[in-house]
Specification:
Largest sheet: 6 strands, mixed
Number of domains: 2
Strand content: 15-25%
Shape: globular
Length: 328
């Protein structure tokens, strides 16, 4: 079922859009698609104390949109303050969901991730004082994935192991064998660097796929594990490992139980991500943004350079013509 679903998405994206450019999807996403900020709901009664405000400030990333203090540049998170005495309908609905699971201790925090299409998932919730301890905004795997994507990896496949060690071993072997083969088979679109298909970052344009493994029991990866578990609860309950192809600025193309993973599906997804970006509108493409506390624009572009627009057309620096080796 997942394989058919992925193929239909790819065909629909290529077949129904206009204003195509020749930049590969993975590179277009890296340079132009700004991640959706997560929503951090903080529920309290009356007001937060000075000590609680300090804990909240220390736990949040630097770039946060907060109605009480303004909006940062490309915020990682949107802070939503929720006095339970005066909740709006949206916060009231979420608060009701929280209370169904038991009476929470205030202040209580819910971190909600946008899956696209008006779909959200509660990636983590708990007491304010445990927000920083759970690695909500930072973890070793997300740091490593951002490092690889900014150094030229086209896609990083994240493998979250489960209780089924045989399935994990099979998935690990498949990724190690298939990713080098796919890198040899992929041919990037022609015309990269020409008007309408400009590249603006000095990150090398490569066809390079890697994989990164995390354990479901790693305390430093609790947020990421809980987020992916909320998206694929049945697979997690079975103890099944999960594979996630991550590209661009930490965008997950799909969350795949490894029982559904096979070389054909990997090839389909790879061809989509390496093909011309026919649909430049981020929200009309498959996938969702994982929560990365990374300054993508600062890492990709020179200081003072205005990031390129979300859609091609026009340019703010001289386009570069690139020599693409055969088979790349």
């Amino acid at each position: 079922m997942i394989r058919r679903f992925a193929v239909l998405i790819v065909l629909s994206v290529f077949g129904t859009t206009v204003d195509a450019c020749n930049i590969p999807v993975f590179r277009y996403a890296l340079e132009r698609w700004r991640p959706d900020p997560c929503e951090v709901f903080v529920f309290y009664e009356g007001h937060l104390t000075g000590d609680e405000e300090t804990i909240l400030r220390d736990a949040l990333p630097d770039r946060v949109s907060d109605s009480t203090s303004g909006s940062g540049d490309d915020p990682v998170a949107k802070l939503v303050r929720c006095n339970i005495r005066t909740l709006d309908s949206n916060a009231q609905s979420l608060w009701s969901q929280v209370k169904k699971q038991g009476e929470p201790t205030l202040p209580h925090v819910v971190v909600r991730v946008n899956l696209g299409g008006a779909r959200f998932v509660n990636g983590w919730q708990g007491g304010l004082r445990s927000l920083e301890d759970h690695g909500v905004f930072k973890s070793p795997s997300r740091h490593e994935m951002s490092r690889r994507l900014l150094s030229g990896d086209s896609v990083v496949w994240l493998l979250m192991t489960g209780k089924d060690t045989d399935q994990a071993a099979h998935a690990r072997k498949m990724l190690r064998e298939e990713l080098p083969k796919l890198a040899e088979q992929v041919q990037l679109p022609e015309g990269i660097g020409l008007p309408g298909s400009e590249l603006y970052s000095d990150v090398p344009l490569l066809v390079r796929f890697s994989f990164l493994e995390i354990s479901r029991d790693d305390p430093k990866e609790r947020f990421l594990v809980e987020l992916l578990s909320e998206i694929r609860p049945d697979a997690v309950a079975r103890g099944e490992p999960i594979a996630v192809p991550v590209f661009g600025r930490g965008r997950a193309l799909e969350v795949i139980p490894v029982g559904d993973l096979n070389p054909s599906l990997m090839a389909d997804l790879t061809l989509f991500l390496s093909g011309a970006c026919s649909c430049q509108v981020k929200d009309q493409n498959p996938g969702f943004d994982l929560l990365f506390d990374a300054n993508w624009n600062g890492e990709l572009f020179e200081e003072g350079f205005k990031p390129p627009p979300a859609k091609s057309g026009g340019q703010n620096r001289r386009p570069e013509l690139l020599d693409i080796p055969p088979g790349r």
